[in-house]
Write a structure and sequence with these properties.
- This protein is α+β, with helices and mostly antiparallel strands.
- Helix content is 17%, strand content 54%.
- The protein has a 46-stranded antiparallel beta sheet.
- The N terminus and C terminus are likely disordered.
């Protein structure tokens, strides 16, 4: 036993002696310092070196370096048995980044701490000061059983950029902040203290923020304010007043329950004017808004309520999150100004008025949509000045409108109904289904215009009557089909329109038995005619560059309204004019190529190929005009005509109008050329006998006529020059009268070349005529034909050998009065006959030339 005791005592002595040697001797201190260096180096402070380390029973002294510019020193007293310590320390680290591996976080900048530590494990007091954040910092804390009891920290004029630098963040802001912490009791159940934060004119670094976050900040942004928090058992109660150049945030009472991890807070956000946010949102609004409300909940369930005057309205909202997911969002915007909303969206202020928006959203995630939205606008006005400028229109008045929109959100779909009523038109949609997942749309619609005339300033064309259209819309963002029908023109037109990438692509359009008079009335045209119109259109490509399709149009039971036509065109139609027409148009890349036929009881017109270029609005067409009976044109020409007439030619219209025509008429030919208002025509080898027959004139002359015409349609003035070849006067009452008086037969004379010259001034034709044969001369120095009055006034001067006389023609053109001046005729005839009798019976016997001359002088 004694031996065991001696052995145990020896072992304890050796252990104590060894411990003493290791802890308190120079040799032991050197071993400890080596161990500490190795340990800290392994932990990441690779340059750590203990320059001095001395540990005795009651004192400790330590001096270490991290690098040549950083040091740590510790010195003081301690009691190894009572575990009391009274130490002073100095920490001076110039480059905190070298502690990254040790701290597990990259820190930048420097840190200096100087202070003292007193106490024992159960109650330890730490005091000191620091230059952290380039500030003047003081701290004082008590730690009981390794847990803080109270904490006092006072940091004055800390630089925000240094705070960011220390936490390895870039210098997004500059400024000064004061931090004051006075916690008397850190135990959550008995928490007691205050924490305050005072930010003094912080400035955001726009250049860096623009680069880092792809922004375009231009305006300087400043922030200042205070956050004051009171700590009470289980709670932190804060008051926040933050003012910036963007907005103000005020929180009177923000309560955070530490134990239950809940928040209960009020808030007030004030934006002076939207333009202060112009670096973040583009807006034209100079108004501001405020948000007032409360936040309640915990980290999984949260309720946000409030009211706002955004867009100058009176609005409320209530948003609830449950299990970190939206449970319900209630939004009630009342009487918000539409103009302010447009200004915020940086849109032209084309609409003025107030609208109400009420939304109840339970889930906003596509696939799980749940909720409803209602929008109501009353007595809003489209601003004509803005609309006219924006869309190059000519609205005379503002457009008043009312809108009701109701939408239900269901899984992937938004189901809506829309009612729009304005001073121009109204539109109703009872079911509009928009699938957000596959982007499909299905909708009905009904569009109604009570008075088409009100659309004039919008579409630039006067229209009359009313109009409604209803149909369905279906498709997606790539392809949309619109089908519908209307009641316009007292018929039921239907259409099928396809949009590709929201641009018109194909169109089918069908009209049956539309009333022509309704079409004219709707298009604000005079009531020229009545009849029935049928249209069948199948357009495969509406793009003008690749236009493709067929359009068929025909008019049946057509009848001119003579009263209207007579008034508009100064005509005197009496006979009923019936007509019908057909056209077949092929649409080909910028061109409409048509075959047209119009048949009437006056004339027939057809064009085998008429080409209209949509791009240049030019036209090129052939045509044929066929009049089977010229007599049917009497109401148009007011001239009795007979026979038939056919004309062929071409029409070209671009910047100018050019019309050409040819006809085989009156056994000759007619060629004409119309260039804008200038008409020129050439007539060759027509028979005057046939012309007189056609005109119902007495057939008194037969010849072959060559004529040229130059006429201006606008001024209605022109000239006609005619040469009558191989002419012969035909037997008539006039020639018989002349023959009975003069014993001279005009019908035996041949007029090789006669010249007729005429001037046209509107509907008055002034002419001269020069006719010569071997034995005669016939001159008309002045002839006036008035086609309006259907009258003629002419003087015909005639010489038949030595007989001369005048003839006056006057009166109605169809039955003119012909008066021969008989006194001149008789006098001329008597002189000629007496002289011939004397010459026969006396002068032949005498043979004296002197006597002949003498006698002849008496009869001249």
């Amino acid at each position: 036993m004694k031996k065991i005791f001696i052995i145990l005592t020896s072992l304890i002595g050796v252990s104590i002696g060894s411990l003493y040697i290791v802890l308190f001797t120079s040799f032991g201190n050197s071993l400890s310092s080596s161990y500490i260096e190795d340990y800290l180096n392994d932990k990441g402070i690779v340059a750590f070196k203990l320059e001095k380390f001395k540990l005795t029973f009651d004192k400790v002294s330590l001096k270490a370096t991290i690098d040549k510019n950083s040091q740590i020193s510790l010195s003081g007293n301690y009691d190894i048995f009572s575990q009391n310590i009274d130490l002073k320390y100095l920490v001076d680290i110039k480059d905190l980044s070298k502690l990254e591996k040790f701290t597990q976080q990259k820190l930048l900048g420097s840190l200096a701490l100087v202070g003292s530590v007193k106490g024992d494990e159960s109650e330890l007091f730490v005091k000191g000061k620091s230059n952290i954040f380039d500030s003047q910092a003081f701290y004082d804390m008590q730690v009981n059983n390794l847990k803080p009891k109270y904490i006092n920290i006072n940091i004055q004029d800390a630089k925000i950029e240094q705070i960011l630098t220390l936490s390895n963040q870039k210098s997004y802001a500059t400024g000064i902040v004061d931090i004051n912490v006075n916690i008397k009791d850190t135990n959550v159940k008995s928490l007691n203290g205050i924490v305050s934060l005072d930010v003094k004119q912080a400035h955001l670094n726009n250049k860096l923020l623009n680069t880092e976050f792809t922004q375009d900040l231009k305006r300087p942004i400043t922030i200042s304010g205070q956050i004051n928090s009171k700590l009470i058992p289980n709670q932190v109660i804060s008051k926040v007043n933050i003012t910036s150049s963007l907005a103000k945030l005020n929180i009177e009472k923000n309560i955070i329950n530490i134990r239950e991890k809940t928040i209960n807070s009020d808030y007030e956000l004030l934006v002076n004017k939207f333009s202060d946010l112009s670096d973040f949102i583009q807006t034209k609004s100079d108004k501001g808004f405020s948000l007032n409300g409360s936040i309640q909940g915990d980290e999984r369930n949260l309720s946000i309520k409030g009211s706002t005057n955004i867009f100058q309205g009176n609005s409320t909202y209530d948003v609830v999150f449950q299990d970190n997911k939206l449970k319900e969002a209630l939004l009630d915007l009342k009487a918000i100004e539409v103009e302010e909303f447009l200004a915020l969206a940086q849109q032209p202020l084309y609409l003025k008025g107030k609208t109400n928006i009420n939304a109840r959203i339970k889930n906003a995630k596509i696939g799980f949509l749940d909720g409803n939205i209602k929008i109501q606008t009353k007595n809003a006005n489209l601003n004509k000045n803005v609309i006219n400028k924006q869309y190059d229109l000519n609205l005379k008045k503002d457009i008043n409108l009312n809108l009701d929109l109701n939408s239900v959100l269901n899984k992937n779909t938004i189901n809506s109904s829309v009612k729009l009523k304005s001073s121009l038109l109204s539109m109703n949609i009872s079911s509009l289904k928009l699938n957000l997942k596959n982007e499909n749309i299905h909708s009905d619609f009904k569009l109604e215009v009570q008075n088409l005339r009100k659309l004039e300033s919008l579409i630039g064309t006067k229209l009359n009557g009313s109009f409604n259209i209803n149909g369905k819309i279906s498709g997606d963002k790539k392809k949309v089909t619109i089908v519908g029908k209307s009641n316009i023109f007292d018929s039921q037109p239907n259409f099928d329109l396809t949009l590709v990438d929201l641009k018109p692509k194909t169109l089918k359009f069908n009209v049956k038995k539309a009333k022509l008079q309704k079409v004219l009335y709707t298009l604000n045209q005079e009531n020229y005619a009545k009849g029935l119109i049928n249209i069948d259109a199948n357009i495969l490509d509406l793009n003008t560059e690749s236009l493709d399709g067929i359009v068929k149009t025909n008019i049946t039971q057509g009848k001119l309204n003579n009263k209207t036509v007579n008034k508009l065109f100064e005509l005197q139609l009496k006979k009923e004019v019936l007509f019908q027409s057909k056209s077949h148009s092929a649409l080909k890349a910028n061109d409409i190529i048509s075959n047209i036929a119009v048949n009437s009881n006056l004339a027939n017109f057809k064009s085998d190929k008429s080409i209209l270029n949509i791009k240049s609005l030019s036209m090129l067409s052939d045509y044929e005009l066929d009049v089977k009976d010229l007599g049917s044109l009497y109401d148009l020409t007011k001239t009795k005509l007979r026979g038939s007439f056919k004309l062929n030619g071409n029409i070209k219209k671009d910047q100018n109008l050019k019309v050409t025509g040819k006809s085989n008429v009156l056994k000759g030919t007619l060629d004409f050329n119309l260039y804008n208002d200038k008409l020129s025509a050439t007539i060759k080898s027509i028979k005057t006998k046939d012309l007189l027959y056609m005109l119902y004139y007495p057939i008194v002359f037969d010849s072959s006529a060559q004529s040229t015409l130059n006429y201006n349609l606008k001024s209605q003035k022109g000239t006609v020059n005619t040469i009558l070849e191989n002419g012969k006067i035909l037997e008539n009452k006039y020639t018989s009268t002349i023959k009975s008086i003069t014993n001279f037969d005009l019908t035996r004379e041949a007029y090789t070349k006669s010249v007729l010259k005429s001037n046209i001034n509107k509907k008055v034709i002034t002419s001269t005529l020069d006719m010569d044969s071997k034995n005669t001369e016939i001159d008309v120095p002045n002839s006036i034909v008035n086609l309006n009055k259907r009258t003629i006034t002419a003087l015909v001067q005639t010489r038949l050998d030595d007989i001369e006389f005048d003839t006056k023609i006057s009166g109605n053109l169809d039955k003119p009065k012909v008066k021969i001046q008989t006194d001149k005729l008789i006098k001329s005839t008597v002189k000629t006959k007496v002289y011939k009798e004397i010459e026969k019976k006396i002068l032949k016997k005498t043979g004296s030339d002197a006597v002949k001359s003498l006698l002849k002088g008496f009869f001249q």
